[in-house]
Specification:
The complex is a heterodimer of chains A (115) and B (114). Chain A starts with a strand and ends with a strand. Chain A contains one helix and twelve strands; from the N terminus they run ββββββββββαββ. Helix content of chain A is 3%, strand content 50%. In chain A, strands 2, 5, 6, 10, 11 and 12 form a six-stranded mixed sheet that branches. Chain A has a four-stranded antiparallel sheet with strand order 3-9-8-7, with no helix packed on it. Chain A has a two-stranded antiparallel sheet with strand order 1-4. Chain B has 114 residues and is mainly β. Helices cover 0% and strands 55% of the residues of chain B. Chain B is built from no helices and eleven strands. Classes of the chains: A mainly beta (115), B mainly beta (114). At the A-B interface, strand 5, strand 6, strand 10, helix 1 and strand 11 of A face strand 5, strand 9 and strand 10 of B.
Amino acid sequence: AQKITQTQPGMFVQEKEAVTLDCTYDTSDQSYGLFWYKQPSSGEMIFLIYQGSYDEQNATEGRYSLNFQKARKSANLVISASQLGDSAMYFCAMREPREGFKTIFGAGTRLFVKA
Amino acid sequence: DTAVSQTPKYLVTQMGNDKSIKCEQNLGHDTMYWYKQDSKKFLKIMFSYNNKELIINETVPNRFSPKSPDKAHLNLHINSLELGDSAVYFCASSDGLALVDEQFFGPGTRLTVL
């Protein structure tokens, strides 16, 4: 069974608008961490934002925020004021204490920002 | 200063050959990882080491052997390369094994097996 599901293979957004990238996860653990990474066309993986399962506030980092809905097991990434440089693959990931703190990645969402 | 570096960046080789990819981190981290990203961009953990001790060993063919000579280095040796080994291999490191510890990735090594 998929542990991390990103249902949007591709998304388009107009420059300067906000966009939400969906991520749902599946775990029976109470403690876990959720991450978002960006992979531009140059190939490197860039950490964006982290949310702990016990964090009561949604995480924010500059233009990135994580809409964490624990009961629904969703951890959507919101990018505000999109820029052309935001065009990239975005990966949601989850880390659990089991199995050596393995991090599992979703299939990714490719975001295209239009001028 | 590069935080996590990998060499080589590109590797093109024939089936059946043996090759190694080297990884070094200068972040002082205790934990290092190898990931494989396939042609569909799916990223999967292969190995992780914490303080030179093997922590995660996923269902990977035993042709793949990681070696951690010290905390700052984690190399990946691949024997008898096959066409299906073609992928991008990422090394990563994190401070430790805490849930909050983000991973810092190297630039990747694109392996092409002909």
